[in-house]
Amino acid sequence: MPNLERMSETAQRRKVWVRGRWLWRAALLAFCGVAIAVISVTNQFLTERYTETTVSRAEVRLTLYVGNMVSELQRNSIVPQLLARDPELIGALSTSDFSRSTQRLLSFVDEIGAASLVLYDRDGRIMAATDRNRLGELHRSAPYFVDALRSNRTIFTALNRDGVSYNFLYSRKIEAAGNTLGVIAVEVDLAKLERSWAGTSEAVFVTDSAGQIILSTEPRWRGLDEAGALERQSVPGALERALRATQDWATPTADTYLSGEAVLRSELRVPFQGWKMVSFTAYAPVRERVNGVLALEIMGFAILLAAAFWVSSRKTANRLVLFQRESAELRQLNARLQREIAEREKVEKTLEVAEQTLAQSSKLAVLGEMSAAVSHELNQPLAAMKTYLAGARLLLQRRRPDEALSSFQRIDDLIDRMGAITRQLKSYARKGKEAFEPVDTRAAVSSALAMMEPQLKTRKVTINRTLPAEPVMILGDRLRLEQVIVNLLRNALDATKGVRDPTIDIMLAQGDTVRLSVRDNGEGIENLDELFEPFYTTKQPGEGIGLGLAISSGIVNDLGGRLTARNAASGGAVFEVQLPVWNAAAAAAE
Amino acid sequence: MSKAMKIAIVDDERDMRQSISQWLALSGFDTETFASAEDALKGLSADYPGIVVSDIKMPGMDGMQLLRKLRSVDSTLPVIMITGHGDVPMAVEAMRIGAFDFLEKPFNPDRMTELAKKATQARRLTLDNRALRRELSDGSALMSKLIGSSPAMERLREDILDLGQADGHVLIEGETGTGKTLVAHALHAV
Lengths: 590, 190
Known about the structure:
A: Beta-Lactamase; 3 domains; five-stranded antiparallel sheet; B: Rossmann fold; 5 strands
């Protein structure tokens, strides 16, 4: 019983465990959901935040660049005015002695920080320049020269010289006493600013009032407008590809794409000539930073999850230990059961052996009893025969052959009796089941009655026969079944010897078993216990040796049935043979 | 053998009875048969002039019971028991009770004749002796004067019968008036 309790306990524990596992799964799912939510919120928040920062920083930087540029331009814008008043240059132009003019310009150029200084005479010829190679060049129709001659102010000109790079020039005419002597031009070095932008941002360019790019960190863009520049930069299709790729990143502030990368466009008006400065700042640093934080977060979650898994696996391990212990107990129980079964089997086998031994010894006892009985039964006629024989010899010696002959007759009878005994003994010896065949019990009854007819005729006996209309089949040996019936009939006949109206009822019926009963109206059975013992007899010596019922019982047992006897309530003995029904269908199935 | 001795044969089996009866009759005995012990007891008296041959195993009263009953009727009646095979312990018991002898089936008929002869001789002697004594005690007038039936008187009468036939002198002692003269007369009368 305790085993059963333990089992139910185990089942309950297992149920709890299963429920726990579901809980655990739900918790894991919730944890993952929370983690994803946190990561996405963080992503969004940080992206916005960093984008803002990036944007503002880009704007600040742009403002700075613009300031730098404007101050550079302003600084240089004053230079022509100052140089126009330089007496030495005026003198040189007046005297056309430019021997010291180049020297003079060179001495200024480093101080000013300009790219170059050029002095033209009235005809547009370069009379002095910081770049000596240009001396003598004629720039009569160059816009900056022409405009300078026409204006009294300093003229700014952005000159696209070779389509790739722009020169920014401030030019002013040099006058002396109302006469135009020449033009002084200062080339502003904006390229150095351009260079200084290159490292900090993704791309910066400056457009003039017409929208043409005049300065750019991307040299190829110069001379193009913004759209043209972007087109040139990106191969057709790459843009869309980039668009598609970046849509997932949910960066609504991504204005444009550069080299397939999402970039932030910032624009600032330059307070000079209607210029505009545009910068593209890459999102990559934003993403990197956000990703860095996200990676940290994910790592944290992963560590948390790992810890949870560790705890859970610890629990599982504990549970496993529990289960193992339980299963070990179950195994022990199982082993014990198996041992018990084995022991029981052994005991059963021993019992079987004991039963066999018992059966053997009881057989031996029966054999001993039987041999004693048989030798007694045979000694009786032997003794009588021997005596008769001795008597007959004497009778013959005394010439009384008739009496001797009658003695011989007696001896003959005795020999017959002995023969009958041995015949019965022979049939007591069991036969095998090889000769079994389906037998109609009705036919066996009829032929037994036919065999008994001579004996029945000698007396007045009423025989009531009740047989069913259908065949009553059993599996057996017909001759032996008939022997049983004959035996029962003979017993019934003998039992009714002293009765006034001898009656024998034979009844055959088929139910679960085949029942054949033989009933007489004699005195009934005195000793029911010893009835079936071999050599038990109530008959006179010589009339029966008490083997009939023992043999009949043996035969019925061999046929798988049993032979019983009882006293009827109304007097007389009833012998009943019960035999298993033979079923043709069942036999065929086998 | 002035007169054939009788042999009572008791056996439940007809053939045994008849065969033994025939055989013993042929051997010169006067036989009679009984089918059961009960019948035999009815037909046998104390002075039965013969012997009894009985089977042991019989339905109803068996041979051993018959033997006991016969011993009480006449303790000197010889009874020959016939036993079946394996009944030796019972035969020994029968001898202890007082059977004359026993035969084991199947027996030799000649041996039965021998036993019957011995038994009948013994029986004849016993019966003769008994008759003689009865004659003596009846015939002497003097002996009848020795009255009394006490064991002492019985012994005295026996002694007188014995001594009276002996060849020798007898001295009778006794007080006056105890019957010395009567005993002396009796001695001479024997």
